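Q&A log
Question type: sequence-to-structure
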Amino acid sequence: MIAIQENEFVTLANYIKKNYGINLTQKKSLIECRLSSVLVEKGFDNFGEYFDFVFADKTTNEMKKLITKITTNHTYFMREPAHFGFFKDKVIPEMVKLTNEKDLRIWSAGCSSGEEPYTLAMLLDEYFGKSKKLWDAKILATDISTKVLEHAKHGVYSQDQVEALDPRWKNKYFNIIDKENLEVNKDIKAEVIFRSFNLMEENFPFKKKFHVIFCRNVMIYFDHETKIKLIRKFYEHTETGGYLFIGHSESINRADSNYQYVLPAVYRKE
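Response status: OK
Response body:
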């Protein structure tokens, strides 16, 4: 494994913090582990040469690949399942009463490879049944990594990744590709809109507020100040009565936000 020098690490950490909000201060060993193979593959002897190459790329494709390498975590369907049960049993009925326009706006921020937004789409289908066609309830799913978004759009997952799903769901919402892989069916795919988006954008470009925002296990990469700024932007873009779901390893200090605590990792805009 190629070692990263302190000055090289500081250069990268400062750049990533400024442009993407990600705090790498305690991630030096992770950077070495995840990026060493990239240096070998591209023929670089040290991180300095590699970073010069990445920063010089005007297309930003190399930076996107770097971001993907250092942020992608293993994910799967029904991760933190209590959230999905609460979403179906409590949140959807409340939001249906909240809107008179048959318009539900749901955002999966930091959607990674798509398991979360597809699960939400399946839950909406289960709840509405045949009346689903009367609703505009497509899910916006965003991530900073174009690589994981491409994976998500294809909607192909291994048996291990769908292991936690009810067998009935596998039959209803997936097509079998082979013994090892399944693909989300076209009806569920049509309910999710995937877009590349950096949560550090100063102004969010959304014309309407969201009834529900899922941003789970994303803010673990941010320092306290960046996290507070993001939560406040989420609050501004949440409908009154709407919900924010975060990861169970994350929390929101009452002094830092007007969101009201509901359940572990679930907050509401009163």
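Response note: The domain at 6-71 is CATH 1.10.155 (Chemotaxis Receptor Methyltransferase Cher; domain 1).
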